[in-house]
Amino acid sequence: MKICNIFALVPYSLFVVQYKSEETHEFGRLLACWNDAVFLEDFFEKHQDDLAAFWPEITLEEAVIRTRNEARVLESRLLAVARKGRHSQFENLSTMFKPLHNYTYSVSEFEKSKATGGQAKSWLRIYAVRIDVNLFIISGGAIKLSRTMNERAHLLAELRKMEVVCDYLRTDREDEFGIFELF
Predict the structure, then answer these.
(1) Long-range own/partner contacts, residues 71-76 (CB < 8 A, 24 or more apart)
(2) Distance (Å, rounded) from C-alpha 157 to C-alpha 162?
(3) Is residue 113 within 8 Å of 127, Cβ to Cβ?
(4) Would you place residue 175 in the very low, low, confident or very high pLDDT band (cuts 50, 70, 90)?
(5) Please, what is the Cα angle at 100 between 150 and 140, to 5 degrees?
(6) Is residue 4 within 8 Å of 18, Cβ to Cβ?
(7) Model-level pTM?
(8) 113 membership: H or E segment, kind and range
(9) Is 166 helix (H, G, I), strand (E, B) or coil?
């Protein structure tokens, strides 16, 4: 998996990668999937046991509707916080993105992070790499219906994407996309 480009969603704040294997950047890909009823029906049918294990009261149809609604809210909230965070110390992307692992207590050079949907027990995830307080690069995202990311192939792929972005940032000495000029 290789990065072919990095785009600014919100200049000086929120960036997103596009992989060579994809036609669009990851944020656009996620939103397209999360708003596509056919994709969501297929996904929830395939992962019906996971859905029932954590949310037994939710039908497949309700899961599709909930995902589409929550995706719209997550998109607008993420973009608004990214814009506001350029001028606010109280609300910025670091208030929205949390360390990927709950046991992370210190910030590493490039911290793997996650943002979740606004609802309690949200299954939507946007994964990103934290460079600074209000500077993140979205590496991907997923619907997470399992306890850990190590239990499902589509979640393991998201872990790999975060690692690809971290490796790229560690080794890109020429700063091809101008990320390090921002801070």
Answers:
(1) 71/30, 71/31, 71/34, 71/35, 71/117, 71/124, 72/35, 73/117, 73/118, 74/115, 74/117, 74/118, 74/124, 74/126, 75/31
(2) 9
(3) yes
(4) low
(5) 75
(6) yes
(7) 0.91
(8) strand 111-116
(9) helix
